[in-house]
User: Which sequence fits this backbone?
């Protein structure tokens, strides 16, 4: 079926060329600067060991996990309206996991050290289990997505041998983001992450951001191809996004209540830094780089709720698309740099040392995103071509 990706319009090849160009620029910057010099080209330092790369990794794990929001209704509850969009969700998960793994690679000083996880496994380490669940989820979606699409092309039902793997993918999707949350809340010295609700927060944001991206991509695919995921599938996905963004904002509000009502200094300092800025007691300098970003995130998420909750507004696909854009940007800020900067600032010594990503760091990140969208474009081209052939 991959041969179908070699046939396309001029716009299709221009889009692939554009993405490949960004990929090449990122490769040049990585091997020209970061490979020989290390992470000194980034904004990372002694006080902030995770930065923009890991922020993108955290967000994209949620996008990958969100595939369960179409797999579960279709395969477990036999919601046939998701039949046309399920394979798109699985292919979105594949590209998201690939980007996750690439962000881990570029974040490591020496990527070959990743082999130590295989050569010297440490089951008592959360990082080991993150490696297992991510690679396992990638293989599950590759096998299931390809098997289902091949069967559809032949006019046959999904193979029986694939059903157990499909059912396994449902709890596995939840596990990849739960384990990622454990990477954070397993660090007792970082009060911002030391909360039992971190995993539910991660899942809530994943189950609104991922479907929002899927819905927007499905709308774009409908405009550039003859493939239509179906109005009812899109509207149902819109309802899922609406409920999950409400839950995400509710969980964020719980963090504020717990910290400030209980007057817990360790938790309050991190939230104060993010939303009001914080003065370093040693230097007397006020720091608040992320204050406007965090308020923008909250405003965007609240605006998304206002836009998406009324059924009449949500039924309008232009309004629905606008609401999804608000969800994607709002959660990307909150769960990305908000989560990283909030956890590392102030440091355990209560000093405020701000982390700001560098231009090279941003360009390498952009290249990883371009690589992911390049894979996604090819996979979606295969899927839509096959479905158009079947319908014809």
Assistant:
């Amino acid at each position: 079926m991959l041969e179908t990706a070699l046939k396309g319009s001029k716009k299709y090849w221009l889009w692939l060329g554009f993405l490949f160009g960004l990929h090449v620029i990122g490769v040049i910057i990585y091997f020209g600067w970061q490979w020989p010099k290390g992470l000194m080209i980034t904004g990372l330092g002694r006080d902030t060991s995770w930065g923009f790369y890991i922020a993108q990794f955290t967000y994209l794990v949620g996008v990958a996990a969100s595939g369960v929001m179409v797999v579960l209704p279709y395969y477990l509850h036999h919601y046939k309206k998701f039949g046309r969009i399920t394979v798109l969700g699985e292919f979105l998960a594949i590209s998201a996991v690939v980007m996750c793994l690439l962000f881990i690679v570029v974040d490591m000083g020496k990527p070959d050290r990743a082999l130590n996880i295989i050569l010297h496994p440490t089951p008592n380490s959360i990082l080991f289990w993150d490696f297992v669940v991510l690679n396992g989820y990638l293989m599950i979606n590759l096998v299931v997505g390809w098997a289902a699409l091949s069967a559809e092309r032949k006019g046959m039902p999904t193979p029986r041998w694939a059903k157990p793997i499909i059912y396994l993918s449902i709890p596995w999707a939840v596990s990849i983001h739960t384990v990622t949350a454990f990477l954070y809340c397993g660090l007792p010295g970082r009060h911002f992450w030391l909360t039992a609700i971190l995993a539910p927060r991660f899942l809530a944001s994943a189950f609104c951001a991922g479907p929002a991206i899927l819905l927007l991509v499905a709308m774009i695919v409908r405009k550039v191809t003859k493939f239509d995921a179906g109005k009812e599938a899109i509207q149902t996905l819109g309802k899922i996004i609406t409920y999950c963004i409400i839950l995400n904002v509710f969980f964020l509000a719980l963090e504020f209540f717990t910290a400030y009502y209980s007057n817990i200094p360790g938790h309050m300092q991190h939230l104060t830094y993010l939303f009001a800025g914080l003065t370093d007691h040693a230097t007397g300098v006020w720091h608040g780089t992320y204050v406007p970003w965090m308020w923008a995130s909250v405003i965007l998420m609240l605006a998304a709720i206002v836009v998406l909750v009324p059924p009449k507004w949500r039924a309008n696909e232009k309004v629905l698309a606008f609401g999804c854009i608000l969800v994607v940007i709002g959660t990307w800020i909150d769960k990305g740099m908000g989560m990283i900067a909030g956890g590392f600032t102030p440091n355990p010594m209560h000093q405020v040392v701000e982390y700001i990503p560098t231009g090279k760091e941003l360009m390498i990140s952009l290249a990883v995103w371009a690589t992911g969208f390049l894979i996604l474009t090819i996979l979606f081209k295969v899927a839509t071509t096959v479905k158009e052939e079947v319908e014809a």
